[in-house]
Design goal:
The structure is a single chain. With 111 residues, the chain is of the alpha+beta class. It is built from 5 helices and 3 strands, in the order H-H-E-H-H-E-E-H. A 3-stranded antiparallel sheet has the order 1-3-2. Strand 2 and strand 3 form a beta hairpin. The longest helix is centred in the N-terminal third of the chain and has 14 residues. The chain is elongated.
């Protein structure tokens, strides 16, 4: 089997797994110990879709990540922080709470 050319290997979409990217952002927020982390520090991690990873941390892991945006000299500046508290798991959709199989005993009909 032939190896992928160097150019194709470099452009493979998931060179770093999403969970690793998520972990790097979470590590940065934990390291800040509740202080605001400027967006620039998150961008320094070189995660192209950082917004999707933050969304995942919020909605899949139930973490409370706050953000604020301020306009200074006509330029927007953003910060993120991990809010204190216990993560709340994402709710399970009602359709997923039901079993695929009906496990109730079958009704008995007279013979």
């Amino acid at each position: 089997m032939q190896d992928k050319p160097e150019k194709l290997r470099a452009s493979t979409p998931d060179l770093q797994s999403r969970s690793t990217q998520r972990a790097r952002i979470l590590g940065l927020l934990i390291e800040a110990r509740g202080e605001w982390v400027p967006l620039g520090r998150i961008l320094d991690l070189r995660i192209g879709q950082f917004g999707a990873r933050i969304y995942s941390l919020r909605h899949e892991l139930g973490l409370s990540i706050e953000n604020k945006t301020v306009t200074v000299d006509g330029r927007k500046q953003s910060w993120f922080r991990l809010a204190p508290g216990v993560p709340t798991p994402a709710p399970i959709a009602p359709a997923c709470q039901q079993s695929l199989f009906d496990l109730t005993p079958a009704a008995r009909y007279p013979d």
